[in-house]
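Dear Dr. L.,

I hope this message finds you well. Following up on our conversation about the binding site, I have prepared a predicted three-dimensional model of the protein together with pyridoxal-5'-phosphate. For your records, I am including the exact sequence and ligand specification that went into the calculation, followed by the structure tokens. Please feel free to forward this to your student if that is useful.
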Amino acid sequence: MSETSPKLRAELEGIPTYKPGKPAAAGGPVAYKLSSNENPYPPLPGVMESVTAAASSFNRYPDMMCTGLMNELAERFGVPASHVATGTGSVGVAQQLIQATSGPGDEVIYAWRSFEAYPIITQISGATSVKVPLTPGDVHDLDAMAAAITDRTRMIFVCNPNNPTGTVVRRAELERFLDRVPGDVLVVLDEAYREFIRDPEVPDGVEIYRERPNVCVLRTFSKAYGLAGLRVGFAIAQEPVAAALRKTAVPFGVSQLAQDAAIASLRAEDELLGRVGSLVGERSRVVDGLRAQGWTVPETQANFVWLRLGERTVDFAAACEQHGVVVRPFPGEGVRVTIGEVEANDIFLKVAEGFQKEL
Ligand SMILES: Cc1ncc(COP(=O)(O)O)c(C=O)c1O
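The resulting structure of the complex is given below.
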């Protein structure tokens, strides 16, 4: 055997591997997974039926252009179908956006801490990450992000609400920021948690992109619509960007099961958004409960809460796990806890209370 190994791109060295949320322990006592911002509700029967029906022909390739889904999304959002592009989850679409805009020598700006896929997909492309720290209140520092723009900047992510803090940027500050971004820099409004927002001051990216050709809105079926395992997300952007997304898509990436489930979910939107309403109610209960215990919890508009625990992060996550809930620790920084089933949220609140008492 040869001593040499295939030459791999230098950019791959040191890429942090994506850490998926830890699964709930199998076979243990009750165990709830609150580590991946998933939807705790099982698939709706109608959505399940569409998936089972599509399964009978998975010997065939899916519709490569996702025609039915694109048309359905176009109608749902009141945009031309040519402005819609689908992909394998919104993380897949985010990677396509980077591929379409950025390479070695280019810069991609995003807040930090934010969604952990951003540094990975940026580094894979060979572009340079420019991480702009969140404010002390855990919110995007849009002034600092605007100040970080150089002539090498190609793309900027604004994660709204931000993962993992749940915090939002509001209409006036976002518009002010967008006014400062040169027209040849693409701003991606990552709205993976859009449906959980109740603050009327948080703008809908779909309204913003209509007036701004350098804005692309990223959405997903993984969270509010409960299709995380099927991998389907989409972008809404004006034609040149949407067309670039079609060029960078993995051919046949979105399975027919995913396409049909997404269409069925759009048609069952009222019921699904009713579930989102219940989760939002649980979110208020959890946040109020934590604050009553003395915790400082940033205002969250997503399906998770953020506790800035610093050095106590890992101990807190271990305590949660001992009691049957798995949360997402970011060692040295804090834990992100998904709003899940009522019983799971109760356990989390109980652990948080015990932990607070020990301090
Ligand atoms: C901010 C944000 N964007 C995008 C995604 C990707 O979701 P998906 O690829 O399942 O659509 C996530 C998932 O956690 C997220 O938190």
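In brief: The mean pLDDT is 95.

With kind regards,
A. P.
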